[in-house]
Amino acid sequence: MDDKAKLPVTIAISGAAGQISYSLLFRLIAGDLLGPHQPIVLRLLEVPQAIGQLEGVAMELEDFASPILVGLSCHSDPLEAFKAVDLAFLVGARPRGPGMERGDLLEVNAEIFAEQGRALNAVAKRSVKVLVVGNPVNTNTLIAIRNAPDLDASQFSGMTRLDHNRAVSLLARASQRPCTSVEGVIIWGNHSTSQYPDVHHATINGRPALECVGKDFEASFIETVRRRGAEVIRVRGKSSAASGAHAALCQMRDWLRGTPKGSWTSMAVVSDGSYGITQGLVFSFPVETHDGHWRIVEGLALDAASAALIKASESELLQERDLVRHLIDLP
Ligand code: NAD
Ligand code: LMR
Questions:
Q1: Low-confidence ranges of the chain (pLDDT < 70)
Q2: According to CATH, what is the number of the domain 161-322?
Q3: DSSP-assigned states of every residue in 157-188
Q4: pLDDT tens digit string along 311-324?
Q5: How many CB atoms lie within 10 A of CB 231?
Q6: Ligand 1 site-directed mutation target among 231, 239, 250, most atoms within 8 Å of CB
Q7: Is the CB of 10 under 6 A from ligand 2?
Q8: Separation of 284 CA from ligand 1 center, angstroms?
Q9: Are 92 and 47 in contact (CB under 8 A)?
């Protein structure tokens, strides 16, 4: 098919004047998600107070002279921003500062995802795919799902790809191998310090990762991945931005195009009860993707220590769920 005949893909980005979007938007119009020949329309959503700043970002997007950007608009109403969108990146939310846990953001951010879930339910394309980035990401994803009853829960995922990428990079550096040689890492659970970065199924150049890096590496591996977001805030003074934007592109790209045969990635998705995780909870699992659909990888063996760590993260998510009952227990 002639590339010029391709229909544009419409993409909404909330929090479009924020720091993650300042990286994400320019990667999108460079073709890093859908390739250099797929036209895209961008719908940028911000709070009214940030619309001025957003218009400045829009000017820079225009000045890129991207051959694939065929439409651009700024909005403060999600019902306008999400109208007939194919893809939505829900980035807009307050980030944490030094000394905070991501769960501390629940009170300020949860409402955003209820409103945006309702708006997506009302006006987005029925096939929309929604990637939630704003923290605390698992529970925000749950809130969005529950407020969008006409969409399928499988059309939503929460971003744990940054943790996954951190784990891959850490193993690659420890073994002095390229990141492409690392397979089979899993992030289980919450995007919080209770997550379980699991190295037991990981391989480096086809060899069990723990044989390559030594058994003693595991404890520091888990703690480093769990605390990396806080460490970036401590050292940089702000939370991760470019690495977050890159992870969002990686997660959406794998979702749309599929994971390579025999490999998986980590995504926070609605639980179907796999691995004993409470049905309906949004939990990070190993997932395979194919033809725009994800599927939890079943049947991986878990030792007792791994199972206990996974359960601990589930408990934290159940507590978070209890705190937002008023937003998810809909009539
Ligand atoms: P930021 O403060 O730079 O930008 C957030 C933007 O969202 C701001 O411009 C703000 O005006 C906007 N916003 C707030 N409420 C909104 C609403 N209701 N509708 C639309 N826009 C709204 O923050 P950031 O660094 O870009 O981070 C955004 C979120 O992503 C934070 O919650 C952060 O903790 C989270 N994050 C998650 C991951 C992850 O791995 N899941 C990684 C990095 C950051
Ligand atoms: C991250 O993991 O870098 C983000 O979730 C930001 C944070 O608060 O740690």
A1: 1-4, 330-331
A2: 3.90.110.10
A3: EE--HHHHHHHHHHHHHHHT--GGGEE--EEE
A4: 999 999 999 999 99
A5: 12
A6: 239
A7: no
A8: 20
A9: yes
- Cα-Cα end-to-end distance for the chain: 47
Structure tokens at 214: 């030594």
| Residue in the structure block whose two tokens are 């995780």 | 277
> How far is it, in rounded angstroms, from Cα 208 to Cα 193?
25
Helix (H) or strand (E) holding 107: helix 106-123
H/E segment holding residue 275: none
Q: How many helices (H) and strands (E) does the chain have?
A: 11, 14
User: Is 134's C-beta closer than 6 angstroms to any atom of ligand 2?
Assistant: no
CATH 3.90.110.10 in the chain is located at 161-322
Class of domain 3-158: alpha beta
Residue range(s) of every CATH 3.40.50.720 domain in the chain: 3-158
- For ligand 2, is residue 229 a contact (CB within 6 Å)? yes
